[in-house]
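Weekly sync, protein design subgroup
Attendees: M.S., D.O., the rotation student, P.L. (late)

Item 1: inverse folding check
M.S. brought a backbone from last month's batch and wanted to see whether the design step gives back something sensible before we order anything. D.O. pointed out we never logged the input encoding, so this time it goes straight into the notes. Structure tokens as presented (209 positions):
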């Protein structure tokens, strides 16, 4: 089963971005950074989500992200599905930190249970067919609304959401042009999906990093 080994974000200043992600979230192998000035405006068409176990963990990660220089897109709040917040990193990437729990069940931690890459796509059903053809196995599917692929041995899970719905979920306008400033590293090979998201073989991506 194909899986994602890492995601690479194109950033203007790799040193500053490394410092931000270490201070904000303590991320290590899941995230790579590459210097790039590729032009982009508006919504880049994707978000990264950190799934955690309880609200206090959400609050802790949001607090360190804001201290490190992130800005708030949606403050932490309860909802029907749980508790979460959305922040934007200084490099422009959008991060959602969330839990399905509405109450703490133990001491506060900073443990991240899952890293999920959500791609905003034009046609969820068509993109689902494309990715299953590339060897990704579907874990959850809700028609033309949302698809989550089964977690393989890689540290990042992939999900598909309609672009406009994803933008609304994180509190930004759906319009955007230019580079996604994202490369997905995995064992599915080198290709570009129907919405312009680029994949590279993880071994080659590591060599180029």
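Designed sequence read out in the meeting:
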């Amino acid at each position: 089963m194909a899986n994602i080994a890492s995601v690479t974000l194109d950033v203007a200043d790799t040193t500053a971005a490394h410092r931000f992600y270490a201070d904000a979230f303590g991320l290590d192998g899941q995230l790579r950074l590459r210097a790039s000035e590729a032009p982009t405006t508006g919504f880049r068409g994707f978000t990264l989500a950190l799934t955690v176990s309880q609200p206090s963990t959400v609050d802790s990660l949001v607090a360190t992200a804001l201290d490190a220089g992130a800005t708030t897109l949606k403050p932490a709040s309860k909802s029907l599905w749980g508790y979460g917040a959305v922040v934007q990193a200084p490099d422009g990437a959008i991060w959602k930190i969330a839990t399905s729990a509405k109450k703490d069940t133990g001491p506060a931690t900073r443990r991240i249970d899952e890293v999920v890459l959500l791609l905003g796509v034009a046609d969820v059903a068509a993109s689902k067919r494309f990715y299953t053809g590339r060897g990704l196995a579907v874990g959850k599917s809700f028609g033309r609304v949302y698809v989550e692929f089964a977690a393989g041995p890689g540290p990042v899970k992939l999900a598909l959401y309609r672009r406009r719905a994803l933008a609304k979920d994180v509190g930004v306008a759906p319009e955007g042009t230019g580079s996604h400033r994202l490369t997905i590293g995995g064992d599915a090979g080198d290709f570009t999906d129907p919405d312009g998201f680029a994949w590279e073989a993880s071994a080659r991506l590591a060599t180029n990093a």
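Discussion: Residues 55-67 form the longest helix (13 residues). The mean pLDDT is 93.
Action: P.L. to compare against the previous round before Friday.
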